[in-house]
Design goal:
14 helices; two-stranded antiparallel sheet; mainly alpha; about 280 residues; about 5% strand; elongated
């Protein structure tokens, strides 16, 4: 008996995607419907070959690297949470993210460098076709960037992409196929735009919260300082001569600065410790 659409299983991968990409229940039901259309036996998983057939992309080192990111213990099979994670992550990637993904594949240990031969080999492999003149020019440009160590930073890879954008076309083609095979280009573009706006709004709210917190803390400090100013000036002068309050505040700041300097001075601490002995 097949799975029942709408009753999708939840795991930590699904929860992570919900939090990161703001997926709703209706979105997950759509994913579940697609998953169930492939998993007709109701086994709870689909195969890597099933997924590649869905997105109409042949298996390659690029797709293998994509599945390796799942860190799944069940090689060759994809659970629903993994299906959601692959699909959502790659569909929501921005161009910069895709290039960072490519860089990560060749730099799994996060050294910040990739080797020239690895870049050429990977690009040749993902194209899986005779190299065009444009790709050959990109490789020549890559050679010109080599300062002798045969390694490149992400900035240099970005430089190659900006001059020869077709070099990494298979990366972007993979994303497009995933988007079209699931919820469609238009849907994903709308969701990414909405996701961006939501994240920016949340950041603005967090900034406003922090600013408000700083203001409240500052007001509390000022109130405490004014209590000290009142003691120094006396209650009558404090209220009848408000223009003199700032001068007293400045004096208190100087006193506090001197005390801090004394507290942080090693010789002063040594003297204090000796006196206590």
């Amino acid at each position: 008996m097949g799975n029942v659409a709408g009753q999708y299983p939840k795991d930590y991968r699904v929860d992570r995607c919900v939090a990161t990409f703001r997926l709703t229940d209706s979105m997950l039901k759509k994913f579940w419907s697609i998953f169930c259309a492939i998993d007709l036996q109701g086994s709870g998983y689909i195969t890597v070959e099933d997924y590649l057939k869905l997105i109409d992309i042949p298996r390659s080192s690029l797709t293998d690297a994509m599945f390796n990111l799942l860190d799944s213990k069940d090689d060759g099979n994809i659970l629903f949470g993994e299906f959601v994670e692959i699909t959502t992550t790659f569909s929501c990637f921005e161009p910069m993210d895709l290039l960072k993904y490519f860089f990560f594949i060749l730099d799994p240990h996060r050294t910040g460098l990739v080797e020239k031969n690895d870049v050429k080999h990977f690009v040749t492999t993902i194209w899986n076709a005779p190299l065009t003149s444009n790709i050959k020019e990109a490789f020549s440009y890559l050679d010109s960037l080599d300062d002798g160590d045969g390694c490149f930073t992400f900035k240099e890879v970005m430089d190659v992409h900006s001059r020869f954008p077709n070099t990494f076309y298979p990366l972007f083609r993979l994303q497009v196929h995933i988007m079209r095979a699931t919820l469609g280009d238009t849907w994903w573009d709308f969701h990414k735009a909405k996701l961006y706006d939501t994240i920016q709004e949340e950041k603005a709210q967090e900034r406003a919260r922090l600013i408000n917190k700083i203001k409240q803390e500052s007001a509390a400090i000022n109130e405490e300082n004014d209590d000290m100013v009142m003691k120094r000036m006396g209650v009558v002068k404090f209220y009848l001569m408000p223009w003199k309050r700032q001068a007293e505040r400045d004096k208190l700041k100087k006193i506090a600065a001197i005390e801090d300097e004394l507290d942080n001075n090693p010789s002063t601490k040594a003297t204090t410790a000796h006196d206590e002995d």
